[in-house]
Amino acid sequence: xxxxxxxxxxxxxxxxxxxxxxxxxxxxxxxxxxxxxxxxxxxxxxxxxxxxxxxxxxxxxxxxxxxxxxxxxxxxxxxxxxxxxxxxxxxxxxxxxxxxxxxxxxxxxxxxxxxxxxxxxxxxxxxxxxxxxxxxxxxxxxxxxxxxxxxxxxxxxxxxxxxxxxxxxxxxxxxxxx
Amino acid sequence: xxxxxxxxxxxxxxxxxxxxxxxxxxxxxxxxxxxxxxxxxxxxxxxxxxxxxxxxxxxxxxxxxxxxxxxxxxxxxxxxxxxxxxxxxxxxxxxxxxxxxxxxxxxxxxxxxxxxxxxxxxxxxxxxxxxxxxxxxxxxxxxxxxxxxxxxxxxxxxxxxxxxxxxxxxxxxxxxxxxxxxxxxxxxxxxxxxxxxxxxxxxxxxxxxxxxxxxxxxxxxxxxxxxxxxxxxxxxxxxxxxxxxxxxxxxxxxxxxxxxxxxxxxxxxxxxxxxxxxxxxxxxxxxxxxxxxxxxxxxxxxxxxxxxxxxxxxxxxxxxxxxxxxxxxxxxxxxxxxxxxxxxxxxxxxxxxxxxxxxxxxxxxxxxxxxxxxxxxxxxxxxxxxxxxxxxxxxxxxxxxxxxxxxxxxxxxxxxxxxxxxxxxxxxxxxxxxxxxxxxxxxxxxxxxxxxxxxxxxxxxxxxxxxxxxxxxxxxxxxxxxxxxxxxxxxxxxxxxxxxxxxxxxxxxxxxxxxxxxxxxxxxxxxxxxxxxxxxxxxxxxxxxxxxxxxxxxxxxxxxxxxxxxxxx
Lengths: 178, 569
Description:
The complex is a heterodimer of chains A (178) and B (569). With 178 residues, chain A is mainly beta. Chain A is built from 2 helices and 13 strands.
């Protein structure tokens, strides 16, 4: 059974303030149903007594205080994880935008993740060969590290990033993409 | 009847009906007993900062006050392990740190050997006994502060964490004790006599020395080598205990320093370097508020070892990330933002941290010290930003890392023009007392030579090196030889990474002797170009060739170079 709350008190920018709620925790994922039947999504930014402040991921355009119903899922935003993601194109919430079916996976994980215990980390040492000689020779990338591309408007940073993703190898295997 | 949560906004939680609580008291929140600390009390409404992720915490959840301030559990077994900001073991924790994952208590047992007898009169700080098998460093159990009287009972042999090891005038003394992290541990007096902390880095020990019990800041922009320099100090400085607080920095780097400490041998004891190190880790994605506490936790651990009569060094990387945690929380509580959004009490928070450095006579009469070395990461290299500017007020030594030096591969990139050491005169006096009479003059000579070379380099950029006189061109050459032959020190070198006083003195003496010879030659009519083109490779490679005590080799190479120079006449 799902409980939907209707007591929307305030709409401002991307925020919805809803009153009279009970048992809502911080950082919960919210499904928001508009009067028109449209489904939107949100996250709880703050709970104060019986008030909850919800950030609407799709924006509040077209939302009214009357007729908006919010369902609190009791869980943080999570997505299914697994190999079902390979070859798919999805939006920031994990919903498909390639016209295909929803992505399925054996289990769901919260998108925020949990911090990795630093004592379990191994210091990264295995080189990633990007095939871009200036990176490989001067600013070597190793597996498990980060490679930010600082760029200015008009520079082909996306092409470079894609090139690296496509042709990189580590330990003789394709590193990512491909 | 516990209190209840009424408002949750990230790490800021408001609770009510918790009964009498004091500022900085610990409160357990919700079903996971998330630890949190009281930061404000108004009309029965208590604001707390939570030390773990508060996702799912609801208004109405229980809030149970612990009745004591935020404390850490101090006892044997800290050395060689990695802890989180509240000193909970990460070594024993699972791969992913979900809330509550670190809350295990060790059930290890220790062998306690008493050093007093039942019936003895003891005072606070006095040695009660030692714990064997606690590593290379003798772990001393002391009479807690504020306690004295006759010893009524004593344990002997295997003890667990909660075992009473002694009873003193009716009060139980446990093997482990809790200490509130924000309260400095008491000592008898601060000592004024200065002894230098040998960091093992030539540029620091020679030009900008820090005293034991002093405080140093390492400001440096992105990519200037702060972390590597601090790691080198953690590995090679001559302290008994290192507390390395990795505070808001990258997990991979922390993993690297822990792995290296496990591999390297301590040149002083022959054991592993990790046996003298306590690592407190709050990497950039671990709970933000625990970062705020981790700094104080680190100092409390260092003071604990100081009280045993050891010299401890706290290395905090980086205090800027810690200040950002203060800022993030202050903006949630709606505190009026001061400079660049930092809370108005940023300066006093920094002072509360750096002022806990000191060399003291402990309650038990031993000498111990806490030296604090903090990295500062000024955004965009702006040295006037609030964290850097306030930090400078509370430290005695500043090691500024220079972007241009780092980008020209001069490591450690400590700028000789942008750094200072208020401890230098006192450290000089110490060296003179210890029989090294030339130390102050040698330091002054190197400083002057570097400053002169910088001045002439700026001039040469305008008028060209050819327009300078012969002696001036030799002064430029002197700057180059000092930089390349003395100040540079590779962290990756197996020979040179650890440095050493003897070697530093010999290297400086060798370079200065060569410079003096060059000045003599140029005055005698040898053209400056000939000297500039002379092959000084043997001299600048010496730092990589000579071991820490190879003074003889340095002298031999110096004489070879001098002989080569004399043939130029």
